[in-house]
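Researcher: Next sequence.
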Amino acid sequence: PAGCGGFIGCFRDLKLNAVPAGNPVYSQGVVPCFQNPLQPGAYFSGQGGHMETDDSLVLGRDLEIQLEVRPASDSGLLLYAGTSSDQFLSLVLSQGEVIVSVNSGKGEFSTSLMPEKPLCNRRWHTITAVKRNNVLQLFVDGTSEQNMGPKRSHSAETKATVYLGGAPSDFLVAKHPDGFPAFHGCFRHVSINRRPVVLSKPHSVQGAVGTQGCPHM
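Model: Next structure:
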């Protein structure tokens, strides 16, 4: 009925007219079933998918993004916001290295940090990206790096939608060609400009993303 949520639970051994249904051709917001209780957060199964938040970013302004993440692999697109190839922000995990890149129309600049210990160690890690004027700072747990970008001047005030765990397939994700690994792992306590993102109630979900909690990986 209208106003009711979708089914929450598990199916197995589905048959249609006594014939096994096999793998689905299309799924949205569907993840594998887990026996143990889930922890708070959102789960990305690595099979592709993303979450659109209710927040937006004006890339030419100062901004702050913070998230707690528990990756299950060493590469994946953590966060993306953009309107074109010269108006974007991306936060990426690439072979264990965390990279934040920004272009507000005056040229791209980025900073990166390679943690001493791998982030995919079944523990939660805090990643913070801060842009103040033309200084871009990246914090991973207790370590930080920063870089200087183009001096800020008048730029477009276009709002860019924020996506977690990936981005729509028709978006140009800067520097990352088609086939860049889908994020596999969990998010919790995400905030955009110090405003908490309600992961259990995103604006929309595409693909294998679970909003009801994180498994014990």
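Model: The first strand starts at residue 15 and ends at 16. Residues 174-179 have pLDDT under 50 and may be disordered.
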